[in-house]
Here is the input.
Amino acid sequence: MAVFDTPREAFGALRPACVRLTQAQTAENVALLRARLAAVGAAALQELQEYVLYPLRLALASPGPRRERLAQSAARGLAAVLGATRLRGPELLRELLAELCACLGTPPAPGPAPGPGPASEELKLAVVEALHALIHSADGDVILSLYRPPALHLLGFAVSLLLGLAERERARQVKISALKCLQALVLRCECCQHRQLREDEEQQCGDSFASFLPGVALALSRVITADIKQGHATTVAALRVFYQVVGLVMADEQLARIPENKEKPSGEQSEVSKLVVHRGPDWSKNTAEKLSLLLHKIVERSSVHSHWKVRLELVELVHHLVRNCRQSLVDSFTHLLKAVVGLVNDENSEVQSRCNEVLQHIAEQQLVAHNRALADVLSENLHSLATALPRLMNSQDDTGKFATLSLLLGYLKLLGPKVNIVLNSASHLHRLSKALMQVLELDVTDVKIVEDRRWGSGSGYEGSLQHGVQKGGCQKKYFRFFAEEKVFQLLQQVCRVLGYYGNLYLLVDHFLGLYSESAVYRKQAAMVLNELIAGAAGVGVDVLQEREVPLDRDDIKGAITSVLDEYTDQANWYLVTSIDAEEASHELSVNHSGLAALPGAACGSVLPPPDPRVTTRTMNSNIWQICIQLEGVGCFATVLGKEFRLLLLSALYPVLEKAGDKTLLISETAMGTLVDICEACSYDSVQCLINENSDYLVNGISLNLRHVAHRPHASQVLDTMLRHSDASLLPLVEDVIQDVLSTLDQSYNHQASTFLGVLHSLMAALDEVPPVAKLEPSNSDTEGETPLPSHAQLAKDVMGRCIHLLSDRSLRVRLKVLDVLELCVTVLHPHRNHLLPMAHRVWPALVTRLISDDPLAVLRAFKVLCTLAQKCGDFLRQRFSKDVLPKLTSSLLSQAPASARAGPVYSHTLAFKLQLAVLQGLGSLCEKLDMGESDLNKVADACLIYLSAKQPMKLQEAAQSVFLHLMHVDPDSTWLLLNEVCCPQLYEPPHASLQPVKLRGMGRPRNEFTDNVLLLLEKLQQQESRVLQAGTQEASPA
Amino acid sequence: MAAPPPDPQFVLRGTSAAVHTLHFSCGGQEPDVPVLFSGSENGLIHVWNLKTHRVDKALDGHGRKSVCWVETMDGKDRLLSQGRDQKICLWDLAEGRASVTDSVFTENVGFCRCSLLKVAEGRWLMAMAAKALDEVQVLELPSKTSVCTLKPEAGAKLGMPMCLKLWQINCGSQPLLLAGYENGSVVLWNLSMGKVLSQLFCHQEPVMSLDFDSEKAKGISGSSERVLSIWSLNEQQNLQVHTTHRLVNSGISDITIRPDKKILATAGWDHRIRVFGWKKMKPLAVLDYHTATVHCVSFSDHKNPSERLLAAGSKDHRISIWSIYTQT
Here is the structure.
């Protein structure tokens, strides 16, 4: 743009304007000069700097009625010149500074605090910008002349002027410019043109500003804490200037160089030197105290400022001061650290990340570690926070709680390894732990926790948990004092950071103390312990600095072992979590037996009766207690990795016990723990875990079976093992199954139901034994002599027990037994020589079930009978026809009218199910057992009425199935029977000498049986023709 | 309510045969894991890791014939085992090896367990039943040179030796041998002269097991009868019955006095282990776990008393481990 590049040309261009302005100071003339200036190159202008400045200065200072506009224009002109050139004379700098300042206020001589005059906003802005340009254009040495004592008053004047503008001016632009200008004056201009100051120069600058510090700090703090209407930019700028000034004057580096005593001022300077502050220890201590008050106020206001840039600047303030004034301002650190720690979870991510950087920096510098005073400050902060925590947790909302806990976490992180100072003080540890106990209190009012039972716990064993097992991890917990998950995560971090830095022995010991001190703390203490150990191992812990001493594996192993021992201690592991329905029903059944009449003979039950005072709340609490402990076990496994294998000896059994628990939450949590253990110890699956450690489990089961009355879980563990594993487990547990059976023999009365669960799982597992293995020995004739394969032997043993239990008082037990029995038959099937004697022994009890028991039991018993018939065949024929068949047929006959009349609801009744089951099974039963003719007739008679269209559809179909089977056994008599009912065809005798065929069904009108009978006859026809075809095909080649 | 019956601390399973002999070796330094050796009817010697409670190694050196005695020589790296294959094997187990480095052929067909005594550094004496049915032979190890053969006088009619115990009053003094015989007598032998010093007829049935406390000069023996015999040795080297202790059930297969001489344990045919105070034979505990005859009992030599254990091996294939130090 520059048109005039050489000084000569420039001079030619500028001279007329300068001359005119010198002669007449008018705004127009200034404007003219400024216009010319725009066309002059910077290098040329530099040469002419003083020449051009002269008329402008003249204009600036000229008195007159229209001076405002003139001064403003002149100031702009000055700014333009200075902006393009460098100022090389200290004298000139001072003069210009004085003149510019004078534009806005009275010279500094008389009053100590000159305020800005009643100038217009535009003028002020122009002047401030000119000032800024002036300071900017001054070379290093030149500007430094301002900070020598002689210039002090001038500097002071400028500073106070700018502060006045910043504080009292209303126009935002002016305020900000004034602050920027002030910043330049502290030599902390943001542009990077300036050369780095030397140490002594910094020192000099600091010395000068020390004199103004009180005024500057006060005024700026007022600006910072002023109404937010001034806009965030002002606040940000003021904050920046504040910490620049404070950081400069209070810099540890500078203060360290200050001699103890003030130098004697040399004569001539003495007057001015009085103004210069001596930054000795007393002064700095005094000043720090006052600053602390201001900083407190600033932090309070700015940390909650609505604009994130202000909060960000606050973080910068902390960073700057912590970096430069860590000794001089140590008393303010309480506030400073609180600010940055509190902002670490700011809603604004930029503030967050900067905060983290700053904290990281603080930690890396080991400011805390190497500064006892700072550590003290932090631990005091921590103490007072811990003291207030319970109250705050009660009164604050979740956001407030989050902020409070963030602060707590921040302090701990900053303390880092020094956290032990806090922990070693009994009172600190006490406060902190009690606060945690209170905050972590769980909400145990939810009834569902207690009510949710494991599916399949009632009757079925369907629930092989092999599928859908999920990774451990925490169950969602509900706390009394907060709802948000992130609050819990903070608490988790608090504990983990404690564990990471703290003395693990001390902590574990303390919290184990709380754990056993009161049931009120037990859950929380366990939660804390889990997290402590995770933290100690560095799992999921977020810290600012590494700990000083690396983790000692033996320490953590020791800690884990002792916590584990405590968790799995009987008193803490076997808690009342339900008023068990089975126990209850058991007692009920005993009561019915009449024993209850004797008050003293307490039913023979060794289990203490469930305490009526056990409330849902207690049970809920106990459930959580167990879950937290289970989570702990999983966590410990994760921490120790493969080393946890050594602890499986004691830890696996209790977890498996809980995996079989009836309370859904507990069994799910335990499954999660198993998965955790699997991963930690690098087993491929839960099944591998169980199989490879079956020796430990078997040991636990065997020892616990000895006290089955007190510890009824042993069989559950076996049950769980079987359900999570497959037949490959059997050889490993064979040993203990014998123990189970012999224990069962000793306690039929009390534990039958539990044991049956195991037996069922066992038989189900045996049923899965590969068929090759099953069939192997069955082909030998001398089987009676060769020993049974072990699994078949087991089935036989179990079957023996079933015989006893088939007549148990409790229907539930009887039903279970029937299920087990059926499986036994299936398993024993290939070993006929063993199965038949057993079937013989079972028979009487089974018959009783079939003919005089609850319909439910009859139903199951009939199923067993069908299976048995399939396997034993004609062995049962006689017995069946004598003991069972009459009963079955008569019941079918007697029920038929009822079902014929019944409405649609009938199909939901037990009677219907029974009819259906019998009809569905009877056909194949007859075929399997190869029944004799009279029996078949009985069956046919009983089933015939069910072919009636009045019967429910399902029963008709079932009855059809019976006849289909009968057709196989004896097609001719079935044909006859059906035709007796309904005969669709006329049979012409082939020869007249033969008598005509007369069947009773001939010519009958259509009735309720017609449809079904016709259908059956058609099927019979098809069957016969198939047979015929097959016969001819066979015959033809011959 | 009475305290529930004590439980074993752990049960070791997996020998798949009756267990006949047990021996602890827990003396090693920290990274060294305490182990228990077990010998069973199927000829296998199992080395049990007492930290994991699992078999570290199974040694097969007796041709599947029952192992009736195992003993270590200076730590767990050198093991002696005696089998019904009439062989005594010396195993080298150091650094994961498992090889038989030497063996002695006893030619004896009886059940008598050997007895080992360390007489000097690197020098042991081992007493074993010899080829002739009533003889006992003492060898020096590791040289295997015969020290003496103890043959009863012609008309003594002691029958076969059933159990042996080599001992000495203190280090360097004359080693002596106590032997229990088929005819129910306990005999004290002088090794150097090969002469009987004393004979005590204390059982009607063969002596199944004996142990001797050289400090109190008192010993105990058991047989298939329902009685334990406690006898003492006076200064004239004469054995005399001190007292007898009646048992509830008959049959004792093993007796071991704990190394600290405070208590002793017996292995009973009634499936039970009984623990007595040694001083007055006060019954302290009946440990009931096994489902078949208990064949052997052994105390551990762990340095730390709280970790010392009692182990019992049984015909039911199981080895029960009991922690009785903390309780008594």
About this structure: Chain B has a mean pLDDT of 90. Chain B is about 0% helix and 50% strand. The longest strand of chain B covers residues 239-246. Chain B touches chain A through 15 residues (CB under 8 Å).
